[in-house]
Amino acid sequence: MKFWKWSNSVSSNNQELILDGPIASDTWWGDEVTPDLFREELKQHAGDLTVVINSPGGDVFAGLAIYNALVNHNGNVTVRVDGLAASIASVIAMA
Fold first, then answer.
1. Rounded to an integer, what distance in angstroms lies between the CA atom of residue 19 and that of residue 15?
2. pLDDT tens digit string along 49-66?
3. What is the pLDDT of residue 6?
4. What CATH number does the domain containing 78 carry?
5. How many Cβ atoms sit within 10 Å of the Cβ of residue 82?
6. What confidence tier does 2 reach under pLDDT thresholds 50, 70, 90?
7. 52 and 21 in contact (C-beta within 8 Å)?
8. Looking at the 3D structure of the chain, how many domains does it have?
């Protein structure tokens, strides 16, 4: 079980991605976001994206990979912090 989920917004061209939990390079407990899983799902969602973050942070290298994936996404990326974006999650929020 991953800790992010996708939801369609009012506009069919804008999707919402919710990141809720620790950032990790590999999954241990099932609630972490990992760069490989994140990149694979991001490829399937073209268009504009709103990222909602509530995360205590985590693995720096995994977070940088997620940040780079968002920066290179084909579409506008808007980030909203809902609760906490600590440590490496604050870097992801700058995407």
1. 13
2. 999 999 999 999 999 999
3. 66
4. 3.90.226.10
5. 12
6. low
7. no
8. 1
Structure-token pair, residue 2: 């991953």
Q: Are 85 and 51 in contact (CB under 8 A)?
A: no
87 contacts: CB under 8 Å, gap ≥ 6: 56, 57, 58, 63
The pTM is what? 0.84
CA 5 remoteness from chain centre: 9
Per-residue pLDDT tens over the stretch 83-95: 999 999 999 999 9
Q: How far apart are CA 59 and CA 26, in angstroms?
A: 9
Containing domain of residue 25, as a range? 4-93
Q: Under a CB-based contact definition with an 8 Å cutoff, are residues 20 and 50 in contact?
A: no
Residues 31/22, Cβ–Cβ less than 8 Å: yes
Handedness of CA 68, 36, 52, 23 (dihedral sign): negative
Please state the rounded mean pLDDT for residues 65-86.
95
